[in-house]
Amino acid sequence: MKNGKQDSNSNSFLGLTPLIVFLVIFMATGIITKDFTNMPVLVAFIVVLAYSLCLNKKGEKLSIDEKVDIFSRGGGEPTIILMVIIFILAGAFYSVANAMGAVESTVNLGLSVLPTKAILPGVFMIGCVISFAMGTSMGTVTALTPIAVGMSQQTGISLPLIVATVVGGAMFGDNLSFVSDTTIAATRTQGVELRDKFKMNGLIVLPAVIVTLTILSFIPIGSATLEVGPYSVVKVLPYLSIIVCALAGLNVMAVLAVGISTGAVIGLGMGAFNFVELLGFIQRGFGWMEDLCLIAIVIGGIVELMKYYGGIGFLLEKVTSKVKTKKGAELGIAALSSLIDIATANNTIAIVSAGPLAKDITKEYDIDPRRTASLLDVFSSAFQGIVPYGGQILVAAGLAKLSPVELVPYSIYSMLMIVFGILAIVFGIPNLKRKTDNTKKVES
């Protein structure tokens, strides 16, 4: 490899096979059953872990206990554990906000300012705002899809088009929100700050947003009066608080703590729940993130085993042997994130899985870590909004009683994210001034 930093003699394709086994298990189950949700991701990774513990490095043979120690070091790596804590806090925030009525109020507030003649671009923008505030594309899809179905019935707008537009807006926030698990995963794996990743990321996807709005504005629709439910501006404050705190530069744990506290105080004050019920809602939020936390820990351990077996070095050697330039390395990072998301239908898992590999490539080719974090998030989120077996499209299609495949041709924003993501790599934009201590200044 470049600069001779990697000992090629220790690299081995065998060490890469755990990743291949996972892809085979996941894809084969989906193809055979015609439903990619039938293979739980955590179960698949546990099977891969069992396989990984059966391997041995060439010329060496470790006991199971020694391999478990290697796995534990990877799963218990400080970045992984901190990310787990942040995931749990994010779940608690969304649960409390949902319980005190913030989701419903935020949706209805957005609809109240929506011009009837601009329904499609308006729905997209509302989806962007809500998902950015909530930090969850699934929550946005769940909240907005029933409303989009009603709009379609009132105006005659194509149902697949307006539902796919909701998904597009949801993926915007999933990609950019300060409390999105993808943002947290991308920034944590690359050691960059939330604000810096947001700036880099925003400049890459802004053209996609503008073009999407332009396209949606030119699609003819009927006219009708939209029915908007009640809302309370006070109930929107938890989301506003996390946006303000994140933009002010508070670390992500402080941001989430402020959001949870704001939601709790408002919910208690308005009688949405009592103190005991509040504790239950916080616990419910923790539970929502349990699978993701366990997946992150197991992936961290498997990656550590793959490193020991020489699989990570083998992959980097092969990727970098084909890569001759920094742009080529960036395209490699984008492809890695995209392929894993296509295989797993989960952009957070794609980022967590590709993150350590991307970080090594970043160091090897002196890429701005902020840019790497953005590319990981942009491409994984873009494909997440296109694959018909992805959670967002499955939920949207289910609520609208459509086939998931019907939504894919109308996934305008997600497709444009890929286009402008590639253009950003090819033309080297945005070219923000790089911090000399960027890799040392870690958002915690």
Automatic annotation (TrEMBL):
- Where does it reside? Cell membrane
For this UniProt record, the keywords arranged alphabetically read as follows:
Antiport, Cell membrane, Membrane, Transmembrane, Transmembrane helix, Transport
Q: Does the keyword Cytoplasm apply?
A: no
Q: What is its main location?
A: membrane
Tell whether Cell membrane is among the UniProt keywords. yes
Query: Which InterPro entries does the record associate with it?
Result: Na/H_Antiport_NhaC-like_C (IPR018461), NhaC_Na-H+_Antiporter (IPR052180)
Residue ranges annotated for the Na+/H+ antiporter NhaC-like C-terminal domain, each copy included: 15-215, 222-429
List where the protein spans the membrane. 12-32, 38-55, 80-103, 123-149, 203-224, 236-258, 265-282, 294-316, 378-400, 412-432
Q: How does it sit in the membrane?
A: Multi-pass membrane protein
Family under the similarity heading: Belongs to the NhaC Na(+)/H(+) (TC 2.A.35) antiporter family.
The name of this protein is Na+/H+ antiporter NhaC family protein
Species whose genome carries this gene: Clostridium ganghwense
Q: What is the lineage of its organism?
A: Bacteria, Bacillati, Bacillota, Clostridia, Eubacteriales
